[in-house]
Amino acid sequence: MKSYSQIQAMMAITKASLHAILRSPSSVIFGFAFPFIFILVFGFMGNGTSLKSYKVAVDNNADTTNELYKVFENTPGVILKWYSDKKSLDEDLQYGKIAGVINIQKNTSDNPPYIFSFRSTTSSNDKWPQFKALAESVINGLSNQHYPGRPVYASFDFNYKKDISEIREYKTIDFILPGQLGFSLLASGVFGIAFMFFNLRNTLVLKRFFATPISRTYIIMGEMFSRVIFQMLTAFVIILAGRFLFGFTLIHGFETFIELLVLSFIGLVVFMGFGFIVSGVAKNDNTIPPFANLITLPQFLIGGTFFSLDVFPKWLRWIAELMPLTHLNNALRDVAFEGKNLWDVRWEIGILLLWGVIVYAISIKVFKWE
């Protein structure tokens, strides 16, 4: 007599569950259509940016005793950074982490009193044009304050061809796509698992499974695999669409693509743990959305999905940096644009895995079969 195969039973559950997911409008919308629409919108917007805060390096030889420097130091949205070594500065310029480098020097001709120079790279194309306009506004404001109707307080020394180094362009899609991919994984992991397991339990499907020889472990694994397969297909399509439609940067090509899928898998597994918690604590299907939104909405808003964490005050950045979605988004961007490998982002992966241990420990305590 042929022995019962737990693996075959698990694969049958996976196949049936995947079929149900693909037939569910909400699963398709939250897992694929919603983030894909955002990618299309921001992709067609081109290289515009909604970033309102700019990190700017200060040349180590800059004159910081003058009033212009003090004004920039207190200008909202401008974060001045000092670098002790040239290598760190060059890396941040290369990867577009700063808007550029400013330098303020006394004018030897004394008319105007100071010269304000600025240089950047094409990696910061999403930042330096806006900062340039802001810098000109600051200089004009100070000039009108000191010399109304007279020469300016400082001249703005900037030449696009001379002061913008050709490295590579950092496009809006390079920031938006990893955030939307992370959001897609979070929404699918939490909402998808929560609704699926609650409905299986509520409709007594899980109870019927118990009448079969398949073990509980394989039941859960079968349902999880269906969600993983669906969402990894979604990640596959989102990344390729971003790459071939809008030029999303995959710095090392296929290798980077595979690393993004590995990060997506890790993030999805962690987020599914939140879904198990929600399905366990929910009393009915009406309580699932509030519980799920309590987990997903804060991460969606301040986890680096649409905006850099630099736009938030320090206390809010501290909260954001505790969230798993923040670390997934950071890892995705570092691998895609900066060319880091999985070992380089081990800190972000470690935080995600730590969250996984915590989340699944809680989910085991609150998970219900009936």
Task: Characterize the structure shown.
By secondary structure, the protein is α/β, with parallel strands linked by helices. The chain folds into 2 domains: 6-45 and 171-366, no CATH class; 54-165. Helices cover 61% and strands 8% of the residues. It contains 14 helices and 6 strands. Strands 1, 2, 3, 4, 5 and 6 form a 6-stranded mixed β-sheet that branches. Helix 5 (128-146) links the parallel strand 4 and strand 5 (154-157).
Estimated helix fraction:
55-70%
The shape, in one word, is elongated
Query: Main β-sheet: number of strands, strand sense, barrel status?
Result: 6 strands, mixed
Number of domains: 2
Task: Supply the helix-strand structural class.
Answer: alpha/beta
Low-confidence stretches: 45-51
- The whole-number mean of residue pLDDT values reads 83
Cα end-to-end separation: 33 Å
> C-alpha Rg, in Å?
26 Å
The total beta strand count reads: 6
What's the tally of helices? 14
Order of helices and strands: HHEHEHEEHEHEHHHHHHHH
β content, as a range?
5-15%
